[in-house]
Amino acid sequence: MEQHAVEQHGKAEPTGLDVVVTTMASDSHTWNLVFLQLLLEELGHRVTNLGACVPDELLVAECRRIEPDLIVVSSVNGHGFNDGLRVIEALRARPELARTPTVIGGKLGICGSGTPARQRALLTAGFDGVFEEGGSVLEFRSFVGSLPAAASRALPEGSVAAGTGALPAGSGVLL
């Protein structure tokens, strides 16, 4: 039998988001990151998992290099609120990351979850979503599903992509 070479025409567009999943410098937990990576990959996204105990400078440098569509910061040690405030300030200080959708979740404090004041403070600081322990994976999935892949970064300064700018504040999954 004669074999014919298959020629591909056109250029297929990649689907899904480029996502960075990380903890913060004080958090040595990894199972939460594995769960998030598998969940996001199951949803069709490409994930870079930076692992545990990620120093702020490394997180910022890797996000600048990767240019993700979404940054997911996870904490399970109870220091997520304080560490998160520091991390989001460092991310938002970089013009190329200032508009990258960034969420935080997990165990963000040692006094229970779902504190509205804590969630407001994190959102005011610059996070686009807060998903605390004991919540729903469905809320996180819905949030991620509302993001257009790379669309928000491609827009001129000052414009807002559909699905960004008014993203719902979550109260959900153990990130």
Distance between the termini: 54 Å
Output the strand order for the largest sheet: 2-1-3-4-5
- The computed structural class is alpha/beta
Helix content: 25-40%
Number of helices: 6
Shape: globular
How many strands, what sense, and barrel or not for the largest sheet? 5 strands, parallel
Quick one: how many beta strands? 5
- In percent, how much strand structure appears in the residues? 5-15%
Give structural notes.
This protein has 175 residues and is an alpha/beta fold. Helix content is 34%, strand content 14%. It contains six helices and five strands. It has helices at 31-42, 56-66, 80-92, 116-125, 137-145, 151-154; strands at 18-22, 46-49, 70-75, 102-106, 129-132. The chain has a five-stranded parallel sheet with strand order 2-1-3-4-5, sandwiched between helices. α2 (56-66) packs across α3 (80-92) and α3 runs parallel beside α4 (116-125). It is globular, with a radius of gyration of 17 Å. It starts with 17 loop residues before the first strand and ends in a 21-residue tail after the last helix. Mean pLDDT is 81; it is low at 4-12 and 151-174.
